[in-house]
Design goal:
globular, single chain, 319 residues, alpha/beta, 11 helices
Length: 319
C-alpha cells in the first residue's frame, strides 16, 4: 500500500503543536503513514509536547539536531523517511482532515510527482475551521512547463504540498544554503517532475503568530530571490527564456529594495545591472547571488553557517 511520511520541522512551537498533531491524527484516506518530528534545537518544551500529543499514535519518530534552520532540518528528516510520498507540515500549521487524501488521490490519478493545494490563515481567537468539502468534485490544474510556472509565480509555503520522496532525492532536496525551505523546494523539484495544483484550502496557519519567518520581510525577499539566483548559478545551461525570467525577477526585487530601504535610487548596483540586462547583457547567476546579499545590509537575516546535514539524535523512545 502507498505510504505517506509526514515530516514536521519544529523550532519553539510548543503552543501550536497539539493542534498540529490532532490534524495529523484526523487525516482520512486508505494509505500507510509514518510521522517524523524533527526538533531543530528548540529552547522551549516542544519535545515534551510532541511526546505527550503523539501518545498512542503508531509509527512516530522524534529526532533532534542542533539548530540549522528549516531547510536543513527538512533535508535531514526526509533522509530517514520510508514513505513513497512526503507530506511536509509546518509546526504551526493545521492541515484539513481531507488534505492528504485529496492530494494523494489526484496525484495518482494524473501521474504527478508533486501536487499542492491552497493555504490560508485562521484567527487565533477562534481557531482553525475548514468547510465541509466534496473532495471528489475538485479539479486538478496541470502545467505544461512546471519549472517555468514555478519560476514565474514564485509559489511558497509547504503544508499544502505532497510530493514523491524519489523526486525530492533526485532534486537534491531543499537548498541548504538558504534558511527557509519553500522557495528552493518548488524550484528544485520542478526541474525534475510533473506538477499539479488544486485551488482549495488544505491548510491553515495562525494569522498573528509572531515567530513566523514570513513576518521578516527582508528574510522573505532575500530567500525568495536568492533561491532563483542559486538555481541559475547551478544551471547555467537553462533555456534563454528562463534565464531572462530569473534575471528580471531577481534584479527587480533587489532594485526595489535598494531604492526603498537603502535610499540608493538609480545608483544602486542592481539598478545598473537591471539597465544592462534590458540592453541585452547576460548577468551570471553568481552575480545575482552577490546582489541578493544587499538585502541583508542592516537587516537581521538567518543564513546557514554550514550546509552539511548535522548528526540526528533519535529520541523516540527516551522517557
Amino acid at each position: 500500500m502507498t505510504k505517506i511520511s509526514y515530516v514536521v520541522t519544529v523550532f519553539n512551537k510548543a503552543p501550536f503543536l497539539p493542534s498540529v498533531i490532532d490534524s495529523l491524527r484526523n487525516q482520512t484516506g486508505s494509505f500507510d503513514r509514518e510521522f517524523i518530528f524533527i526538533d531543530d534545537g528548540s529552547t522551549d518544551n516542544s519535545i515534551d509536547v510532541i511526546r505527550k500529543a503523539t501518545s498512542g499514535m503508531d509509527d512516530v519518530r522524534i529526532v533532534t539536531q542542533p539548530n540549522h534552520g528549516p531547510a536543513i532540518a527538512t533535508n535531514n528528516a526526509v533522509s530517514i523517511a520510508t514513505g513513497d510520498w512526503i507530506k511536509l507540515v509546518d509546526s504551526d500549521d493545521v492541515i484539513a482532515p481531507y488534505c492528504s487524501e485529496l492530494l494523494l488521490s489526484n496525484a495518482l490519478a494524473h501521474d504527478l510527482d508533486f501536487i499542492f493545494g491552497s493555504a490560508d490563515y485562521y484567527d487565533m481567537a477562534t481557531g482553525p475551521v475548514f468547510p465541509k468539502t466534496d473532495i471528489a468534485s475538485l479539479k486538478t490544474i496541470l502545467f505544461d512547463d512546471p519549472l517555468w510556472t514555478v519560476l514565474d509565480r514564485g509559489f511558497a509555503r509547504v503544508s499544502h504540498c505532497l510530493f514523491k520522496k524519489d523526486l525530492f532525492d533526485r532534486a537534491g532536496g531543499c537548498d541548504p544554503r538558504i534558511f527557509s525551505q519553500d522557495h528552493s523546494l518548488f524550484i528544485r523539484l520542478m526541474s525534475h517532475g510533473k506538477l499539479g495544483q488544486i485551488k482549495h484550502v488544505v491548510c491553515l496557519g495562525p494569522e498573528d503568530e509572531p515567530g513566523r519567518i514570513m513576518n521578516n520581510q527582508a528574510q522573505v525577499i532575500h530567500d525568495a530571490s536568492i533561491a532563483l539566483a542559486y538555481f541559475l548559478a547551478d544551471h547555467p545551461g537553462i533555456t534563454a527564456d528562463k534565464r531572462r525570467l530569473i534575471t528580471k525577477k531577481v534584479l527587480s526585487r533587489v532594485r526595489k529594495w535598494e531604492k526603498k530601504e537603502l535610499g540608493k535610487g538609480v545608483f544602486g548596483q542592481a539598478s545598473r545591472y537591471y539597465i544592462l540586462a534590458r540592453l541585452g547583457m547576460v548577468v551570471s547567476g553568481a552575480t545575482l547571488v552577490s546582489l541578493c546579499n544587499v538585502i541583508g545590509d542592516g537587516q537581521k537575516l538567518c543564513v546557514p553557517a554550514k550546509t552539511d546535514l548535522p548528526v540526528l539524535q533519535d529520541i523516540s523512545h527516551e522517557p
